[in-house]
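Exercise 7.
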Amino acid sequence: MTFSSLKPLLILFTFFCLPTFAQQTYNVSGTVRSTGDAVEAATIHIIELKHRITSDSAGNYSIDLKAGQYTFVISAIGMNTLRKSIKVKANETVDFELEDNANKLDEIVISTARNERSLASPQMGAERLSMKAIKNIPLIFGERDIMKAIQLLPGIKSAGEGGSGIYVRGGSADQNLILMDDIPVYNASHLMGFFSTFNPDAVDDITVYKTGMPSQFGGRLSSVLDIKMRQGNADKFSASGGIGLISSNLTLEGPIHKGKSSFLISGRRTYVDLFLKLSPDSTINQNTMYFYDVNARADFQLNENNKLIFTGYLGSDKLGLAETFGLTWGNSLASAQWKHIFSPNLNSSTTASYTSYQNKIEVNTGIDNVRIYSQIKDLSLKQNYFWQATEKNLIKFGFNSIHHTVTPGEITSQGQSNYNPINYQERYSLENALFASSDWQASEKLNVSFGLRLSGFSILGKGNFLNVDPDGNIIDNTSYKSGELVKTYINLEPRLSLSYLLNMQSSVKASYVRNAQNMHMISNSTSSRPSDKWLPSSIMVKPEVSDQFAIGYYRNLFDNVFELNVESYYKTMQNQIDYRDGAETFNADNIETQLLYGKGRAYGLEILFKKRKGDFTGWLSYTLSKTERQIDGINNGDWYNARQDRTHEIALVGAYALNKKWSLSASWVYYTGDAITFPSGKYNMDGQTFFYYTERNGYRMPAYHRLDLGATLQLKKRKSYSSELAFSLYNAYGRKNAYSITFREAENDPSKTEVVRTTLFQFLPSISYNFKF
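Solution. The predicted structure, written as tokens, is:
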């Protein structure tokens, strides 16, 4: 048989076999969720293809696959890994539900599940804490506090006893971008820091970025705290709450339109002031001390492609000493967010928000009746796009615009006051940013994330703006009209992170990130918080800029029961701000005459060893760090310790599920003393003693350590109702940690100086009753 006679048979054979060689592909798409909320940046690993994709901000993913059987491994920071086998034979939608990896009594662990997200993702310095995980940490005043919980992580330092402020990798307290549902929060504390602004019953989870921040975040040097409010139950009505020794809370949630829309409203109030009134002592029963806050959220699923979310917050603190002194402060927040899906590969998120932080001080001496008021007010618009350009490349881009109004102080007086009313100039500015980033799987082992943020800060009139010489003397004072452009600062902020899988259990990562900051809180290390001021960049006050390099090693141990993370970083900071020696801190209009500028550096090593599974869970964290500044005019121009410098810090956290009724928890913290400025001597003038100071932050507070214990008793647990009693003991062995150290003349011998050490808490027990139905 010749070839020519076979040719028709070959053509016929090829025709019928063509579908086999050109196999059809099908689209598999869906949403990754956790407790009903979308999970952004979850990793979907298809084992057979050795290929990974990432979910977008709405938790959506999409991939084209040929017909066949595939194993999907879905993972995200702070969640248990899910492994699922899927047979692809047509276009279909497959949704995944992830669980938090917090300890649960009835948890069943799949030993083959691997924490792919933490190893393969190029994201460094990120930790996610769910409220279930925070539940295993001992309470203070009966509250499960978010800010106290993250202070137990490496590289995140407490600002002090009872305080909710944090220092992250050498940054000061104002260098942390705190977002609640994408709304900036300027003050995150209640009752002078003993509680945080965030009601745990209204919060779903918090993600902390210490480095390698995604490019959609900017405006602060040190960290991002991305806090997400909980979505209300769209299927049924429920209520939960708690009654503690000094505070109570209540949360209501349910459907507005069943299955399509929901609401959540949660409120708290302390009642310390009610106990004060019971005292027979008139110096106590006339005092005031309380706070309240209310969180609200409403979700509307308009259709498959559109969702609206409305968020609101209102909180206020009141501290008063009879009628002689009053301090009031609080936050007001509101936002509207629209999430839209253009296609399986492209969606967007649009957020318009308002935030306001106000502070009022009242002093009534009978002669001098003075009121001081200050405020920061922002109007913001943020647009995010998420585009799955290819199966190996997720692109994020968008813009952000914020209009700032800063009222540094309004002083009013009544009666025969010696103080004249003063209205310090309001400051206006416009902060804009364009950003884009790409998460790219370069190979089976190498993953890269790179991004760029272009930020611009425009100072607007009206007002007078100073030029000041190095000695603090005013060179000129220029007046600008309302809305007139004074000056614009432009900063280019690149970001790069990469990870390389060494094997199935370990990886190494490296990152570089540049951040710029134009809103500054000026703080005097020798005085108390009322002297702290928020100040926008001006002609004299330049944007702060930081460059951070980090490298890390990550390993899962013993069938993924344990996790070890080791990270090291080096950060340089430009245009750091500090007060001159002997500065007049109250002058808000000419504050530039009291300031000096220089540079800073911070470097350190962080270790986190975590047990994730079993009846006993917890972690050990250790931080070794150094933070310094160099500013001409301070400490003879030599490097000196920054206020937040702290050499060693250790945190040990454990939780044990004793049985189905009882769970126990404990945490122990230790850190070396903070850098502080103490007087180096004293002198007498006209019969009055004055202390003088030399080296800035050249002394140390005593070392701090504390043990907290907790226990939870499950009273009832039914499908429709549950209740529990939570017990805790703060500072269990009664360590007298120094809250402050002051100096005074000895009463019996004025030539001698006494050191006065103030301690806040010893053996502080609490009990709270929590319920849900």
